[in-house]
Amino acid sequence: MIWIVYILECIDGSLYTGITNDLERRMKAHATGKGAKYTKRRGPFTVRYTESLDSKGAALQREAAIKSLDRAGKVALIASMS
């Protein structure tokens, strides 16, 4: 199963990092306020970064690594995707 690590840009300009195995379903959950407590009142969202990994464990490790970055690091990561 493929797992996706993603970064969303919220309407307030903040960045949210998460993982899923179904990005479309997860985005619908975020849009309806059921995706994560952090994103509940920060929509609409724009997907700024995605990275596919082969296992949930690898995705969780990558998510933790991205979450440990400061904002500048996350912005640089997003820019590297372009």
UniProtKB/TrEMBL annotation:
GO molecular function, one term: endonuclease activity
Domain GIY-YIG: 1-76
Top-level taxon: Bacteria
Record-given protein name: Putative Endonuclease
One Pfam family it belongs to: GIY-YIG
SUPFAM superfamilies on file: GIY-YIG endonuclease
SMART domains: GIYc
Similarity comment: family membership: Belongs to the UPF0213 family.
PROSITE patterns (alphabetical): GIY_YIG (PS50164)
Keywords from the UniProt entry: Endonuclease, Hydrolase, Nuclease
